[in-house]
Design a protein that fits this description.
This protein is α/β, with parallel strands linked by helices and 385 residues long. It is built from eleven helices and 15 strands. Strands 2-3-1-4-8-7-5-6 form an eight-stranded mixed sheet. Strands 11-10-9-12-13-15-14 form a seven-stranded mixed sheet. The radius of gyration is 24 Å and the shape is elongated. Bound molecules: S-adenosylmethionine.
């Protein structure tokens, strides 16, 4: 079976989580590259990674690297690729790119040259040219061209893998699914004890936690991937891969997953999203103030993502809220490990507890932190005895 060089991308602060996932899926020979990871894989491996990775955004298959001084050379280089091996002549292609070349003013011109080269090649070889446009639901090509160096990739994911098919009802400031999965990985939650998520918003953390505890492939419900539109795609292998993944799912979750929010609409949205993800029955939803969240006695992790004043609410109103979260941790959550995901250092200070770890994340382009608070029963000293 043919091997391909692939490039898996994610958000800048998620690379180490992506690496851990790739390792746990049995791929050892990979190397970090920018905001992602490079490895060599077969086409079924590529489908497998698209199905199972929680923290990846896109999986790009490298088709050709080249040197081009100008758009004409770019055209020749792209034209020389045997596209007929990858793309059907009645297919549909869309070009995305990252281009900085002194020879063109507008990167759209490079995309156009790239598109022309592919459709001209297919017309020449097969007598018919595929359609093209901005729809990213079919075959998506990614052109990288910086200075002289260029590379053309097929985006085997198409739409980002971080957009799972369950989140149809987003509320204000939802976390991206890949980021939520990485936050859960950062807590080192053992998937067996309780996972408590007050201020759940649209439920992303609780839903990702349930998917992880069930060992459910995150993209199992997704109907469309870029790789499905390639000639290399074999629907039988894909069906078999999905059935194998389903067989490995757990049929129950040992700990409790509890998601609460003060806003009834948030709980409604979370419930609907969880139903779309097929995990509604594994999550207990409650409409209440965070301080009234049921916290079962046998520990686990408790994760909150309160507003932090940039996208929702104002700092002064939030100071009281953060102070209250510190009291809630102290009074109701002993034995748990508490986590707060926020972007405001001054609001973290209002918690009134000393964090043991501060983990850096970006939420889009907002610099955020996940603070970890071990919530001891009695004093820290007593709990060690
Ligand atoms: C930043 S959003 C959480 C987003 C969530 N992580 C997601 O992915 O959708 C903060 C949530 O806190 C909730 N909230 C604000 N004040 C609250 C309170 N006192 N008790 C409980 N929930 C509260 C809001 O209704 C909102 O849904």
């Amino acid at each position: 079976m043919l091997n391909y060089s692939i490039f898996l991308t994610t958000a800048p602060t998620l690379v180490s989580y992506l690496e851990k996932e790739i390792l746990s899926l049995g791929f050892k020979d990979f190397s970090p590259a920018g905001t992602g990871v490079k490895l060599v894989a077969t086409f079924p491996d590529i489908m497998f990674l698209n199905l199972h990775l929680r923290t990846a955004h896109h999986i790009y298959l490298l088709v050709k690297e080249f040197n081009s001084e100008n758009p004409e050379e770019l055209y020749k280089n792209i034209y020389s690729v045997p596209w007929e091996n990858f793309i059907a002549n009645d297919g549909y292609i869309s070009i995305t790119s990252n281009v900085t070349s002194p020879t063109i003013r507008d990167s759209r011109y490079a995309n156009l040259k790239c598109k022309d080269a592919i459709v001209d090649r297919l017309l020449e070889v097969s007598g018919r040219r595929p359609d093209s446009g901005s729809d990213r639901t079919k075959t998506v090509l990614y052109l990288y061209w910086k200075g002289k160096y260029g590379a053309i990739y097929i985006d085997t994911s198409g739409e980002t893998l971080s957009r799972r098919s369950y989140r149809r009802i987003p509320l204000l400031a939802p976390l991206q699914e890949a980021l939520a999965a990485a936050i859960i990985m950062a807590t080192n939650w053992d998937l067996k004890t309780n996972f408590i998520n007050p201020m759940c918003g649209s439920g992303t953390l609780a839903i990702e936690a349930a998917l992880m505890a069930l060992n459910r492939a995150p993209s199992i419900a997704r109907k469309n991937f870029g790789f499905m539109h390639l000639k290399l795609f074999d629907a039988k292998i894909w069906q078999k891969m999905k059935s194998e993944a389903k067989q490995k799912e757990n049929d129950k979750i040992n700990g409790k997953i509890i998601a609460t929010d003060i806003n009834e609409k948030a709980i409604e949205a979370s419930r609907k999203n969880a139903a779309l993800a097929g995990v509604e029955k594994y999550i207990e939803f409650v409409t209440c103030d965070y301080s009234q969240t049921p916290v079962p006695p046998n520990a686990g992790v408790i994760v909150l993502n309160p507003a932090y004043g940039i996208r929702m609410g104002e700092i002064s109103e939030l100071e009281k809220l953060y102070g209250g979260i510190g009291d809630f941790f102290k009074q109701k959550c002993a034995g748990y490990t508490g986590y707060i995901f926020s972007a405001s250092i001054s609001l973290f200070k209002k918690i009134g507890l000393k964090p043991k770890r501060k983990i850096i994340f970006y939420n889009g382009d907002i610099d955020c932190r996940l603070y970890e608070y071990p919530l001891y029963i009695g004093t820290k000293r007593q709990s060690k005895l």
